[in-house]
Amino acid sequence: ELKVEQNPLFLSMQEGKNYTIYCNYSTTSDRLYWYRQDPGKSLESLFVLLSNGAVKQEGRLMASLDTKARLSTLHITAAVHDLSATYFCAVVPNYGGSQGNLIFGKGTKLSVKP
Amino acid sequence: DTGVSQNPRHKITKRGQNVTFRCDPISEHNRLYWYRQTLGQGPEFLTYFQNEAQLEKSRLLSDRFSAERPKGSFSTLEIQRTEQGDSAMYLCASSPMDNWQYFGPGTRLTVT
């Protein structure tokens, strides 16, 4: 069974600082996604990573994927308050019969304080 | 607005009652997924449709749960004889083939 683990689960940052969220998964996967969720809201798509070494950047967020280590990172540069949210990574299991359903981690709740 | 829509947005029901949720996917997306999210957790997969065919169901989907997508467009998720443990956010997502899953706003169910 595919498991997705994120750490840390809670992250309190000061504005202007850098930090990294880690996402480990237990079996092979073709695709890894990062989503953002604000309290009481649905999920907003951030990045999809499709191959080993893939790197995507949008504003202060940068995601990377190492399929050999089964590890993705979401790096936050010079955090601002608007980045406060819960961030989820999700993978699509790479086994026969998988229909593309996403397996999510528990999420990292990020709080950026002035 | 051409995104995924879900109705109702909130539902409060008494234990033992039946509830039905609706999801309207983005038009021309042939894949439709249902997920359940409880407080402090990531979404968990429930079931998947490709067009009108239900192709996968999670073991989380007990016999009290049923989902349909009769014409390959909108989908409904029904929960019979609701239990307090069914309280959660129910999320629908749609997708073109093998691409992003676009999530709707969710239906928050509270069973009292």
Give the largest interface.
A-B, 20 and 24 residues
Percentage of helical residues of chain A? under 10%
Percent of residues of chain B in beta strands?
Answer: over 45%
Strand content of chain A: over 45%
Helix content of chain B: under 10%
- As residue ranges, the low-confidence spans of chain A are none
- The secondary structure category of chain A is mainly beta
Poorly predicted runs of 5 or more residues of chain B: none
Question: If helices are DSSP runs of H or I spanning 4 or more residues, what is the number of helices of chain A?
Answer: 0
Kindly state the number of beta strands of chain B.
Answer: 11
Largest sheet of chain A, described in full? 6 strands, mixed
* Count of discrete alpha- or pi-helical segments spanning 4 or more residues of chain B: 0
What is the C-alpha radius of gyration of chain A, as a whole number of Å? 14 Å
Oligomeric nature of the chains = heterodimer
Overall, the morphology of chain B is: globular
Q: Helix and strand string of chain B, N-terminal first? A: EEEEEEEEEEE
Number of DSSP strand runs of chain A:
11
**Amino-to-carboxy terminus distance of chain A:** 41 Å
The secondary-structure element order of chain A is EEEEEEEEEEE
